[in-house]
Structure to design on (409 residues):
């Protein structure tokens, strides 16, 4: 028996040796450097025995890694029986453009069926879960309401609760965990595919914490049975550079950090870098010619953005590739000044905010922000200080609620 246990942990060491040097205590538990952030997935010794002998479903994408290897490939190599993989927006291997339909398929590498959870089938069905004993959720999030991984999380939790399936969450750090900011969505009319939760634009929680929030705040008709493998040696203020791009258009750490501030521009006349290889680090529009000297041209890029705003037109605006992202950490705020600046610079203000739902006074911008108040404040010329003051009651209430579900300092 001792020989088998020793062989088991040597196998785990081999799987993870490219990520960090593995050491083991006499008890067989892994020893980590206390200064090193270790994701839930990388702490294989804490959950592999729980998976053995079960039929496993995995919710994963290209960010779901054990060391340098896909979690699915790793678990299969360790003899874990994965019967299905469920992929969110951008697909399991992360090669689909934003908003693009992702079809069900068979994974070419493993032969495992892949079920798309982006499109018509957002929630696993009873039939899809019938041959699964345990679901595993391992996806890197970036902490924004309009980043759709938290929508997928809710749908998966709901399906698991309805079908009496336990959900194992392998937690990962939130690179924007230091900031809880923006208006809180309070009205159902602003719900959409890019926002279904009554939270601020940035929520400051990890996926594991957010799952507890969903369970505790009544988002589900019945609670989901959760088992969370926490991130080791982590707190919310720690800088965390993502080892894998979480989606095709967040291809640099600069983009990940600027995403909460720049994704606001979707729903406006401003291109936010989609259609370039520097998405979410530049802002511009053809109408700003003469206002700014920096320029770039968005084009169709398969697997990133096929139909970017202002496709094949030269855009003029701001180059934020050298923007001091530590400024965001110090302020613990999204950068609202960029939106105010470009709205004031835009010559045709009546068409700055793009239309949203037909026959309703809700713009595409409102759906992303979760309220129409910010749009109306920008148009009315309300100062940044007063806009932020209007957010405070909702933010303070949310922060108090959020505290109940935190797993980390």
């Amino acid at each position: 028996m001792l020989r088998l246990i020793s062989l088991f942990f040597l196998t785990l060491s081999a799987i993870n040796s490219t990520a960090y040097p593995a050491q083991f205590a006499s008890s067989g538990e892994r020893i980590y450097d206390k200064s090193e952030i270790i994701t839930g997935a990388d702490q294989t010794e804490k959950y592999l025995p729980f998976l053995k002998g079960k039929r496993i479903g995995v919710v994963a994408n290209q960010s779901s890694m054990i060391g340098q290897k896909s979690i699915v490939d790793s678990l299969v190599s360790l003899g874990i029986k994965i019967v299905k993989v469920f992929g969110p927006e951008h697909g399991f291997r992360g090669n689909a453009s934003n908003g693009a339909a992702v079809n069900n398929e068979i994974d070419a590498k493993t032969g495992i069926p892949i079920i798309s959870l982006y499109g018509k089938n957002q929630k696993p069905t009873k039939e899809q879960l019938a041959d699964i004993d345990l679901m595993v959720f391992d996806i890197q999030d970036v902490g924004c309401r309009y980043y759709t991984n938290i929508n997928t999380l809710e749908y998966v939790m709901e399906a698991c609760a309805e079908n009496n399936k336990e959900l194992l969450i392998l937690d990962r750090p939130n690179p924007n965990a230091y900031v809880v900011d923006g208006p809180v969505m309070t009205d159902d009319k602003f719900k959409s595919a890019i926002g279904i939760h009554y939270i601020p634009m940035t929520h400051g929680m990890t996926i594991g914490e957010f799952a507890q929030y969903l369970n505790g705040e009544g988002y589900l008709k019945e609670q989901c049975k959760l088992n969370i493998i926490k991130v080791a040696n982590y707190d919310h203020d720690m800088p965390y550079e993502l080892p894998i791009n979480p989606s095709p258009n967040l291809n640099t750490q600069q983009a990940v950090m600027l995403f909460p501030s720049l994704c606001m521009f979707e729903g406006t006349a401003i291109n936010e870098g989609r259609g370039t290889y520097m998405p979410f680090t530049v802002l511009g529009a053809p109408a700003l010619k003469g206002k700014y000297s920096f320029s770039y041209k968005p084009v169709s890029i398969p697997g990133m953005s096929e139909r970017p705003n202002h496709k094949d037109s030269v855009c003029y605006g701001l180059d934020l590739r050298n923007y001091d992202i530590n400024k965001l950490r110090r302020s613990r705020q999204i950068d609202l000044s960029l939106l105010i600046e470009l709205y004031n610079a835009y010559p045709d203000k009546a068409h700055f905010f793009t239309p949203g739902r037909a026959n309703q006074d809700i713009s595409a911008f409102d759906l992303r922000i979760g309220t129409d108040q910010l749009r109306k404040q920008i148009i009315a010329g309300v100062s940044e200080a007063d806009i932020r003051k209007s957010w405070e009651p909702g933010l303070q209430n949310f922060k108090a609620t959020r505290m109940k579900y935190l797993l980390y300092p």
